Amino acid sequence: MFIHWGVYSQLGAGEWVMEQRGIPVPTYEWLASAFNPVKFDAHEWVSLAKSAGVRYITITARHHDGFSMFATKATPYNIVDWTPLKRDPLKELADECTRQGIKLFFYYSQLDWHHPDYWPRGRTGLKTARGESGDWNRYLDFLNAQLTELLTNYGPVGGIWFDGMWDKPNADWQLSRTYALIHRLQPSALIVPNHHKAPLPGEDAQTFEQDLPGANTAGFNTSEIGSLPLETSLTMNNSWGFNITDRSFKSTHDLIGTLVRAAGHGANLLLNIGPRPDGTIQPEAAERLREIGLWLTTYGASIYGTRAGPVAPRDWGVTTRRGDTVFVHVLKWPDRLLSMPVPGGRVTHAWILGSGEHVAFTQNADALTLTLPVAEPSAPDRVVALIVSGR
Ligand code: H79
Known about the structure:
By secondary structure, the protein is α/β, with parallel strands linked by helices. Helix content is about 25%, strand content about 20%. The strands form 3 sheets. The protein has an 8-stranded parallel sheet with strand order 5-4-3-2-1-8-7-6. The longest helix is centred in the last third of the chain and has 17 residues. The protein is elongated. The mean pLDDT is about 95. It binds ligand H79.
């Protein structure tokens, strides 16, 4: 579960509102001083994640607006020192995640529309009425100091999810210094960079924003897939941060379809919610999360701990595998007979996951043909489990 939550949530217009409406720094600083999400309840958020079958949460510790959603000594511009809330939601979440067995990752924006030392400016943040000078090295020291806090004060974290480097693609980000710092402080924390490029040294996963690995419908993703673990991030409507007029929620059916297709590409799905400024989660999002969780109680065996399967993704669906079990996910196929290339060996058993009903099949050197149950339009996925020998 991805969570975009911050000062911007108050305007209900997404996390880019400072840039899109050209809000100057002093005005945005006032907005930050009014942020008071008193209904924030880490137990409720993590319990919802749990009921959705979520295994890790990635939350915005600091987005492009430069406001720190955690206790930091590196700047007073943070939720504890700058707002009436005076609480550290990241600490509350970290403790609750530990209690409920969920890993917590921190989203951290390298781009900053607020910091005076983010200089020279990049492609964005040009309308914020900041001074026309700054010390880039001091900015990087600030960034590294904050990462040190995030990796020291919150127990073991899943990792750091970086974003915004694309704002200044040619700047010297001194990545090797930052990456070495992270790996020294928490060797098992993953570095997940959303820089839209092929993986660089020191990175631990490759993430694709609003796209399955290798696809580029978003227009800024790389089609180059490296050898690292993969992830796809996805909005539930068309916004990351809370957007009060965005009604375009994807159906649970379609969200499950993307979860399954991501698994078939060997990728985790990082599904976003944008909580409201009072700290509550939109009912439309909560409902979809619970429905996905319900689906996973039966079909999670074909998703969790799997890898991309032996048959590459198709228009009709995908395959996943764990050991000698291959799962055929039939997402879009009207017929009962479905042929595919041999799934890496001889099939000895085939059954419907969930009901356990036997699935008839034939196979030869070229193909495996399954006789599927009748497609029910309401079911997002027909999952056939196969035992494949000789893999
Ligand atoms: O946090 C969410 C978004 O706010 C953030 N990433 C997700 C997870 C994000 N910011 N921008 N984008 C995603 C889209 C990137 C657009 C870009 Fe460009 C196109 C970057 C470079 C080319 C627009 C045009 C921004 C700079 C130039």
